Amino acid sequence: MSAATVRAGRTGRRTTSAVLALVAVTAVWGSTFPLSKDLLTRLPVTDYLALRFLTAAAVIGLTRPGALRRIDGRVLLVGAGLGSCYAAGQALQFFGLPHTPATVSAFVVSMYVVVTPLLAALLLRVRPSGPALLATALASAGVGVMSLRGWTLGFGEALTLAAAAFYALHILALSRWSTGRTAYPLTFVQLLTIGLCLLAWAARDGVQVPGRHDIAGFLYLSVVAGAGALLVQTWAQSHVPAAPAAVVMVLEPVWAAFFGLVIWREPLDGRTAVGGALVVCATWLVVVMSRRAARAAASGAADAAGVGAVPPRQGDDGS
Q1: Phi then psi dihedrals of residue 23, to 5 deg
Q2: Tell me, what DSSP letter sits at residue 306?
Q3: Which residues contact 285 (CB under 8 A, 6 or more apart)?
Q4: Is residue 38 over pLDDT 70?
């Protein structure tokens, strides 16, 4: 077996692991809907979000303080930019929610799956491949079938669409600038920036903290769905391009429907099942596409370097 083949196999496995890690992240996100909905009946939105992300940043910082020594000027600048984009998306999404039906909001915010490849083409001159476009179309159709029950464009939808654009920008920038080595410090800077941005808004009328009986749920939302999920996403996107990553992330409402059915015994209608199946097909296409692209890139790099090449036999060059 040539060195190029071995390298291509390792790259393909790493890429598959990164895609599956993103799937796991969406599962965690999907599990948060009932907890967040319940907690927000007793805690203002901005207070909840600010405290959640600041707690997540503290957990990341205290778990591996030595890793924070890798925060240099580049990590600080990139992390602050990424965190600001995400904070803007969160604020616009939650402020738009009271002005639009929840199902429509879920669809509109998931349109980052369409906006991401558009931004990649516009800003980075990266043209999406045919399979990537197909995966994007399948994911968009799936979310639409699951969510839409009629829609008119209004103020709430406009805010939510702006949130989707900020999420797309975050996904695009994360895939471009994240590396395996900087994933941990970059996650910390992002979380701290998000928390501070939202705290500046929440502190205008004082910050309300969770009650004692809400601590367990709040810690799950902060530590697992906040610190852990963003750390895994940051690492995974150093191995997965932005457009395929956006497709995988649309699994979030599919997982929400799954947990609603299995744990909370919520009914599953035909539209949700069909839409979820389309999103799962799109994710499967991303896995196959990412493995092939990673192997091709690894083989091409090895061939360019002469790795694994068979030397010509004497006389083949005319000598």
Answers
A1: -60, -45
A2: T
A3: 131, 134, 135, 138, 247
A4: yes
Number of domains in the chain: 1
Rounded Cα–Cα distance for residues 297 and 248 (Å): 21
CA distance 4 to 73: 36
What local confidence, expressed as pLDDT, does residue 314 receive?
Answer: 43
Assigned domain for 133 exists: yes
Axis-axis angle for helices 102-109, 73-96 (nearest 10): 150
Does 313 reside within a domain? Answer: no
Tokens of 261: 């059915």
Please, what's the b/e burial string for 262-298 (b: 16 or more CB within 10 A of its CB; e: otherwise)? Answer: eeeeeeeeeebeebbebbbbbbebbbebbbebbbeeb
**The two structure tokens encoding residue 166:** 């900020």
Domain assignment present for residue 69? The answer is yes
Dig out the tokens for 169 from the structure: 């920008």
**What range defines the domain where residue 201 resides?**
8-295
Residues of 22-60 as b/e, b for ≥16 C-beta within 10 angstroms? bbbbbbbbbbbbebbeebeeebebbbbbbbbbbbbbbbb
On whether residue 143 sits in a domain, the answer given is yes
List, for residues 63-113, the tens digit of each pLDDT value: 999 999 999 999 999 999 999 999 999 889 888 877 877 667 777 888 999
Kindly report the pTM of this predicted structure. 0.85
